[in-house]
Design brief:
The protein is built from 7 helices and 11 strands. The chain has 242 residues and is α/β, with parallel strands linked by helices. Strands 4-3-2-1-10-11 form a 6-stranded mixed beta sheet, covered by helices on one side. The protein has a 5-stranded mixed beta sheet with strand order 5-6-7-9-8, with helices on one face. Helix 1 runs parallel beside helix 2. The structure holds ligand LP5 and manganese (II) ion.
Amino acid sequence: MATLFISDLHLSPERPDISDQFHRFLDGSAREAEALYILGDLFEVWLGDDLVLPEYRASLDHLRALTKSGVPVYVMHGNRDFLMGEQFCRDTGCRLIDDPTVIDLYGTPTLLMHGDTLCTDDTAYQEFRRMVRDPAFQKEFLAKSVEERIATARQYRETSQNATAEKSEEIMDVNQAAVIAAMQQAGVTRLIHGHTHRPAFHQLEIDGKPAQRFVLGDWYEQGSMLLCSAEACKNIRLPTVR
Ligand code: LP5
Ligand code: MN
């Protein structure tokens, strides 16, 4: 048996092939899993549970079919879809988990995060994050009309695209001290996260003990997952079928 971790699918009507691959994954290998964890940015953007794009419906249905088949699916918010809420859970049978969350992964306490909070050198982003994660700010946003929400999100995207084009790769990666602090605080020697779209396995040392950081890959070009069994965790690229 295995536990699967994915993140950063950025499902969007603009890339229907990726949605297809996700659906095949949910109907196929995910059915054999003990559990599936989606660690943020499942959707390119989520403007509220009451504003689901018609193109997203099929993905919700495939998720629902997986949870109905008995595979638990845990979903964490990313920096694009943090407005997913209770209705999303009712529609899919998925359970939302906090960022950060510690799970017992075959006997090894494992810290799960989206990864954006580890990018502490990106101070402009952290400031933006504080603003949009404020419950009062979100309540105000969700009270806006559909058109206003779409327009505001578009402005955020444009501002963000311009900002990221100016930032260095180092600034947009995790800060090593933040990684160590998060792992120490959680009392773990294993971390799994996404967000940076730099799939990798990093070995580090925390308080003299060997520790591991697994970074999940994005689904821009093709699917990607981390498969963990009692023996090991390995990053796997999912074959594209066109
Ligand atoms: O997403 P990605 O990978 O391209 O970039 C992220 C960071 N950017 C973001 C912003 C999102 O892309 C915007 C879309 C989110 C829609 C959310 C739902 C609707 C809003 C709900 C409100 C309650 O997350 C980017 C990081 C990068 O990752 C790497 O970590 O660098 O951060 C930025 O670029 C942020 C900028 O540095 C600062 C942006 C300030 C924006 C201020 C508001 C602009 C005024 C618009 C007027 C309404
Ligand atoms: Mn992200």
